[in-house]
Request: fold
Amino acid sequence: MGNLFNTILVYPLFNLLLLIYAYVHDFGLAIVILTVLIRLLVWPLVTKQLHSQRALQDLQPELAKIKEKAAGDRALEGQLTMELYKEREINPFASILPLLVQLPILFALFIVLKDIVKAGEISKLAYDGVKHLPAVASIINGTTPFKPTFLGFINLTNPSIYLAILAGLVQFVQTKQLAPKQQSGDTQAQVMASMTYMFPALTFFIGLSLPGALPLYWATASIVAVIQQTIVLRRDVEELEEEIDATSPALPNPKKPASTGKKAKRRSSRKSAKGGSS
Reply:
């Protein structure tokens, strides 16, 4: 299983990172580019995950009413909850499945960023086509040393407090963006609010003990995630406003353009995302 995992994920990511480095000649910049490429690759999966998370958050008031109605009867609460999911066409596991798909990629990247800076790993793991690139060949034969730096001065083989701080700050923005609005007595919202500060703090302290390449990857991934969340959540709000306008008996607003076919298609795709994979 380990050899298969390396063949499918670790070695291709290792060589892709090395290929990018051969052209940009900056290890940190190569990590940033690779991270953006990977995040774009899993963009559709993350979009489905965000839609599912948002749909579940919107159901929290009704789930609280179900809990109150069940009065401690777990069987009744579970039955009413599943009926609500079915009525709203929401798969509660749809937000978990995309995450499970991404985890192997994240683990493979951890191995790549940890191993690529080790002496001899480039010659051992590089594909033949990558080995013959001038920049890589000069590293292998010892003509040019491999420089694991970012912007020419941040050594990514050592812990970096600056990159750890950056990763923690961006992680805070990312989690804050998804935190539900807290209401009095809403236990789940209170838990989520505490995680808004807990996760960034953990990211910072863990980043202090890891080579700088890993916090740099995490910070870049979080920046792309914030951009994606901004786009997806703004689109959700626009679609919700359109649905309200469509069901409202009020006269149409002449200043507001009618829904286009593209927006209608987005609403259709969002409904399918809510259903998720069963």
About this structure: The mean pLDDT is 76.
